[in-house]
């Protein structure tokens, strides 16, 4: 199990990107959250098996048909043991 903090730069707000990440995370049995940042980026924390996280990152790089991902910053962070789902923070 691993957990990553990911900051996505690009056209990722107002285009359904957070919902796209939630659906993608749920299909891969990942936990965590995503939230919009004040600078127009999206922050994601995602936790699960390494190969599932790599699949998640690959899918969010492509995104939905409305977003554009320009850059992804990825940092390994400590696990959260009692987390059971992936959610959108408002």
UniProtKB/TrEMBL annotation:
Domain Acylphosphatase-like per the UniProt entry, residue ranges: 3-90
UniProt entry keywords in alphabetical sequence: Hydrolase
Primary enzyme class: hydrolase
Keyword Hydrolase listed: yes
Catalysed transformations (reactions): an acyl phosphate + H2O = a carboxylate + phosphate + H(+)
Keyword Hydrolase applies: yes
Enzyme Commission number(s): 3.6.1.7
One Pfam family linked to the record: Acylphosphatase
Annotated family: Belongs to the acylphosphatase family.
PANTHER family in alphabetical order: ACYLPHOSPHATASE
Name under which the protein is recorded: acylphosphatase
Organism of provenance: Clostridium gelidum
Gene behind the chain: acyP
């Amino acid at each position: 199990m691993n957990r990553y903090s990911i900051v996505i730069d690009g056209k990722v707000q107002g285009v359904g990107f957070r919902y796209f990440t939630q659906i993608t995370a749920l299909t891969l049995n990942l936990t965590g959250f995503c939230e919009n940042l004040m600078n127009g980026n999206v922050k994601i924390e995602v936790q699960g098996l390494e190969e599932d996280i790599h699949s998640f990152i690959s899918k969010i790089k492509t995104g939905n048909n409305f977003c554009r991902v320009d850059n992804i910053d990825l940092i390994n962070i400590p696990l959260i043991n009692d987390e059971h789902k992936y959610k959108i923070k408002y």
